[in-house]
């Protein structure tokens, strides 16, 4: 199927879960925590899942009603 065997599929899943997924999660977490999304993406580049854990334990920022 599409010329993708099991070893290639494992590599693609590894790339997605270890490399790409932290950027998606951290962008959403940073926005909900009131932090700079650009800074958190930059930190994710160097520290990956550690930044995710730090952001996950931070309290959410309440948005006041306008």
Describe this structure in words.
The protein is an all-alpha fold and about 70 residues long. The protein has one domain (about 5-55). Helix content is about 75%, strand content about 0%. The chain is built from 3 helices and no strands. The chain has helices spanning about 5-35, 35-45, 50-55. About 10% of the residues are buried. The model has no long low-confidence stretch (mean pLDDT about 90).
Fraction in beta strands = under 5%
Shape: elongated
Unreliable residue stretches: none
Q: Please state the structural category.
A: mainly alpha
How many individual β-strands? 0
The number of helical runs is 3
- How far do the termini sit from each other? 53 Å
Mean pLDDT: 88
Along the chain, the helix and strand elements come as HHH
Spatial extent as radius of gyration: 16 Å
How much helical structure, as a percent, in the residues? over 70%
As for the number of domains, it is 1
Largest sheet: none
Question: How would you summarize the topology of this molecule?
Answer:
Layout: H1 6-33, H2 37-47, H3 49-57
Helix pairs in contact: 1-2, 1-3, 2-3
List its traits.
mainly alpha; 0% strand; 66 residues; single chain
Write a compact overview of the structure shown.
73% of the residues lie in helices and 0% in strands.
């Amino acid at each position: 199927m599409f010329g993708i065997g099991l070893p290639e599929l494992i590599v693609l899943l590894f790339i997605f879960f270890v490399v790409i997924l932290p950027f998606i999660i951290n962008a959403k977490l940073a926005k909900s925590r009131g932090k700079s999304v650009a800074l958190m993406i930059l930190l994710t580049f160097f520290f990956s899942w550690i930044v995710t854990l730090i952001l996950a334990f931070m309290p959410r920022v309440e948005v006041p009603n306008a």
